[in-house]
Amino acid sequence: MKKTEPGRLVTLQSGDRMAIVAGSGRLPIDLAESLAAGGHAPFVLMVEGEADTALASNDHQMVTIEQFADLGTILRRRQITHAVFAGGISRRPRITALRPSLALFRALPRIMGVLGKGDDGVLRAITAGLETYGVKVVGAHQIAPDLLASAGPMTGISPQKSDWRDIEAAAQAARAIGAIDVGQAAVAIGGRAIALEDVEGTDGLLARVKDLRSHGRLAGKARGVLVKCAKPGQELRVDLPTIGPATVTSAHAAGLAGIGVEAGRSLVLDAANVVAEADRLGLFVVGLPQAPP
Questions:
Q1: For the chain, which terminus, N or C, has the lower number of CB atoms within 10 Å?
Q2: pLDDT value for 65
């Protein structure tokens, strides 16, 4: 089956039906509202313990992470033609909690093969599994392209000359860990990377940077930058780097001067409030050129 091209906007026809596999955060809500406004009210698979309860106002079903092997069956039963993954998932499935099913036995070799991989490897396997059921997996940016980060400064404040050294150092570090499917973000202070994202996510990374401010080698160093960018070769339909107003607040608490995101390959949620909060706190937010393939 031909896959939907990662960068092409999705135009839903009258008989099409979109499902949102909803994790945590604001993105699933924004997508549900966007789809409903366009006349295509979605079916939402709310991941238990992750999805915002506000999504229950949509046609929905609650699923656990251990039921992901059954997603194809569930979506086919609901006559779903397209699906989008949105929001965070904080844990991997527990093998002991998997319920026996025909779909699970079919997917078991794939599941066992990716459990030790990073997020991109897992999401690729889930995406491929869904597409065997005839469901087209699309990216959030293909439904709501206005969520994509634009190039250049987004705020009234722009990076200083010294900030660009930090931006370059953090971008190199983020792409290095992305190449081995570890994370999408890094923080640089004083022209060198000092902290890298891992399973803790961006919130945990920024909390760690805040604690590191008292470290002897960083004491007295001001400013610094958070950079988020897509992993080299990443499946761009799922898990694009994302920032929102809370990212700005946490970056400020960590003593940083600003945030850089890869333009066209990162999502900015609630962009108006991101800009307003950054301007209020004196931070810059800038869209960076895409890395070469």
A1: C
A2: 78
Nearest-5° angle of CA 91, CA 83, CA 235? Answer: 65
pLDDT exceeds 90 at position 68: no
Range of the domain at 56: 18-143
Q: Exposed (0-12), middle (13-18) or buried (19+): which is 92, by Cβ within 10 Å? A: middle
Q: Is the whole-model pTM more than 0.70?
A: yes
Is the same domain home to 173 and 284? yes
Annotate 239-256 with b (16+ C-beta within 10 A) or e (fewer). bbbbbbbbbbbbbbebbb
| Segment (H or E) for 114 | helix 102-114
Beta carbons of 44 and 60 less than 8 angstroms apart: yes
Distance of CA 198 to the CA centre of its chain: 14
Q: Which residue has the tokens 């108006």?
A: 272
- What is the rounded CA–CA span in Å between residue 112 and residue 73? 20
CA–CA gap between residue 235 and residue 39 (Å, rounded): 28
Quickly tell me which residue has 């690729």 as its tokens.
124
Number of domains in the chain: 2
Residues 165 and 192 in one domain: yes
Residue written as token pair 């190449």: 179
Q: Are 260 and 241 in contact (CB under 8 A)?
A: no
Q: How far, in Å, CA of 21 to CA of 43, rounded?
A: 9
